Amino acid sequence: MTHSEKTPFAHRHLLDIDRLSVADINLLLDTASGYVSKSRASDKKLSLLHGRTQINLFFENSTRTRTSFELAGMRLGADVINMSVGSSSVKKGETLIDTAMTLNAMHPDILVIRHGDSGVPHLLSQKIDCAVINAGDGSHEHPTQALLDALTIRNRKGRLEGLIVAICGDILHSRVARSNIALLNIMGARVRVVGPTTLVPSNAKALGVEVYHSMKEGLRDADIVMMLRLQTERMQGAFVPSVREYFKLFGLDKKKLEMAKPDALIMHPGPMNRGVEIDSEIADDITISAISEQVEMGVAVRMACLDLFTRGGAQ
Amino acid sequence: MNAAHALLNARLLDPATNTDIVGGILIKDGLILDWGTHIKADALPDGATQEDCHGKCLSPGLVDAHAYLCEPGKEHRETMETAGYAAAAGGITTINAFPATEPVIDDPSIVEVIARRARETCAVNICITGALSKGLEGKEMAELGLLSEAGVVAFSDGQKAIGDINLMRRSLAYSTMFNKPIIVHAEEPALVGSGVMTGGRTATSMGLKAIPSCAEAILVERDIRLIAMTGATWHAAHLSTLDALNSLRRAKDEQLNVTAGTAPHYHALNDLEVGEYRTFARVSPPLREEDDRRAVVAAIKDGTIDVISSQHLPQSADSKRLPFSQAKPGVVGLETMLPVSLRLYHNRDVGLMDLLRTMTVAPAKLLGLDCGKIEIGKPADLCLFDLDKPWQLDGTLLKSKSKNTAFDGHLLQGRVLKTFVSGTVVFEL
Known about the structure:
The structure holds two protein chains of two kinds.
Chain A: H1 22-40, E1 53-58, H2 64-75, E2 79-84, H3 96-104, E3 110-115, H4 120-125, E4 131-137, H5 143-157, E5 164-168, H6 175-186, E6 190-194, E7 210-212, H7 215-218, E8 224-227, H8 243-250, H9 254-257, E9 265-267, H10 280-283, H11 291-309
Chain B: E1 5-14, E2 19-28, E3 31-36, E4 49-52, E5 57-60, E6 62-67, H1 80-89, E7 92-97, H2 108-121, E8 125-131, H3 144-150, E9 154-156, H4 165-175, E10 182-184, H5 189-192, E11 197-198, H6 201-206, E12 210-211, H7 214-230, E13 234-236, H8 242-253, E14 258-262, H9 264-268, H10 290-302, E15 307-308, H11 317-320, H12 337-346, H13 352-357, H14 361-366, E16 382-392, E17 411-421, E18 424-428
Parallel strand pairs in B: 1-4, 1-5, 6-7, 7-8, 8-9, 9-10, 10-13, 11-12, 13-14, 14-15
Antiparallel strand pairs in B: 1-2, 2-3, 5-16, 16-17, 17-18
């Protein structure tokens, strides 16, 4: 069966989690599961996307996400091009739309985009004829991160529904948090956000989460503890007074973790700031930390996304 | 075990319970064992000592919500030891020390050092307010969480207002995690500039650079909107203008967590005091015009102002004996807080119980302290005072190391006779 003969997927673009259904998410996760074993084999290459062109357009620095998308595309047999802002004409003053139109004229099949402004993938999807995959837009969403987190949780816990998931740290600026909140809510998990009052939106409850400003209370009986990265520029006085205070109040250490369920799973989208949001002792303990597994699931989930969103679904 | 000691035949005034009775207080091991009308000479435990208060007023020891003790760093002006003597002479048994020290109280280790030094040298209790911004510079938030764990009771930048509205917004939001108030100097700093006295006829005729009085209301209004958004607990250290007080009234009507204080000089003096360029009347915010002073009195009367504090700010003679615009603002106030404030009672502006409330249980509540009331089992921190005794203040006789009082030579009515901290006499006239 060739790729185009497979069951069409209902969506053409992956812009955010909200427009996915339970069935869509399950299909993405199931498909990704299938790619996990392929990625572990010595011959990792498929020819599913043979002849297709994937452009990774990254307006923000990224190592792991870009590499992950690159590997995913290569393993499916696509021709992958990386465009980063430093070497592109964007630096020469070209507008976003002009860049998009230029790329469109090259007839790519997949555009993977990361941009510092929320909503850029939405804008591009209206101007470009191929599948647009959001690899992170501003403080809005990072849907493939939420999918790989969901796959990791499903692997370890066997389900998503009914789990208590505490997302901890800088909720305000986090696209990872928004995507995870959306996905976990769709899948029936109970989501909490935990962070300082300066880093949790004051109306966070409207996202369908429980809000906590104390790790002790927020982690109580949690099945999953998802730590977020605190950006360096937010540590020094503007949002939190200092690294040492942040670590004391919101850094994950053994003591705070005791509040969670004994078999609680620790996750982090990376890269970690050890001694800021997470204690090394915990980050490196593979019995409780799923951080390496998240990275592995990342490639599989992105393979599934490239597979499904290129099946020529509805607009 | 020590024998009990009885204070008999006193007019017991406890604002926390609205009690005004003639009776006695029985003290044992520094704690209040019992109190009330039934404590009489003929009904005391065996071996109890006693003293007759001759019908004078006996109230909870006063709680001063706002004072600068200058130690560490400015010991030539005041130390915790000298401030302790001054406080005791003013009937104050608990002082809230502000963070404008050198170094600034913006690090938990400094809190511990000061608390220990206070226990060793000061005759009265000291609680500590931590800095709101690092170095009181108004640029970055101080470590409110670590300061809170170290035991500070509130956060404040003292005489500096935070001009950066985003910093204020985030500080208010952040402070809600620790359930402690932010105490602000309510004056928009950009309008204060290098002004030295309140805008008005006096400033104009004296040729002194003025601070528009609306600087106060503008900052209060700004903060009220931020408090409505963040739910923070906020206290204006010293409101002194009608407009700001009206803003506060509206905020209280909206059920926001706001309170306000003032200082004796704002209810007792107006800007005419600065006549002859008297630098000892230079304070920050500046003394206001008479209409504003009257508004302050009215606000104390109707409860809009919750707290009267000394705003004790010692300045050496060197920093006061200067041209007006170069002189440092501030007055000492520990010893005069009660007698000056009793003017409000003698002038029939404010009832005695309501007046005492602003210096006892109200500041204690603001700072989350379990004091400022007469209660069985609690430390016997008490103030015995003569409500009517007339006297003239001689600034040179103040116990404070600095003598920069605005009330030198003033005729006062009402005087502290004796002050007890945990049952021990720390001052006796």
